[in-house]
Please model this.
Amino acid sequence: MDINNSVALVTGANRGLGRAFAQRLLERGAHKVYATARRPETVDLPGVEVLPLDIADPTSVRAAAVAAPDVSLLVNNAGISTGTDLVTGSLDAVRHELETNMFGHLSMIREFAPALAGNGGGAIVNVLSAMSWFGGKGANAYHLTKAAAWAMTNGVRLELAEQGTLVTAVHLGLADTDMAAGWPVDKIAPSDLADAALDGVEAGSAEVLADQWSRDVKSRLPLTPEEFNAAMDRALAALMAA
Model:
């Protein structure tokens, strides 16, 4: 898929990764960029077409699909992290995170799939995480939702192949955004992440591992759970000590 002259819709485009995606799409020649947010008045990027959107609200998702029938590239970026554990944390918080990070993305795909088919197939980018593959105390609800979103992405890729829609999963460690502000470690710049993802779309890639952290984590998946957890403990300790 060629980013130049595409019509893109980006969720969570008012800040962080979403804003970077919208900006780089404009800079790379997209014909139109729909920048969506729950509070559309917070979108401050010139040149975009702003739409209100709450991906956890099916009515809002449906309205966005009606308002943007010309989309050829859907960037599912919006997400939340509640810092909730699975056993002792609020089950409502776990459900809220799952409704946003997995079902919200799936709702967007279901609503926009017909438009993508009608516009030549197009592409979908699902922004996931290296935490699709590992958890940790205080972030296990997030791990659950990203693992579920990874499985969902793999499933819809197979279902949408027949209509010619590329589905690209993008994994990263930490990006330099508000969500990762408390981590004093090296982080990928949002614009670099957006470029890596868009390069992957143009190359027809099903998966983009955007940084060394995500590449390292995925390389450990063949290990046993005990070996994997020990390797992750060492890697996290080294990361924090750097």
In short: The mean pLDDT is 94. The two ends are 39 Å apart (CA to CA). The CA atoms of residues 60 and 164 lie 26 Å apart.
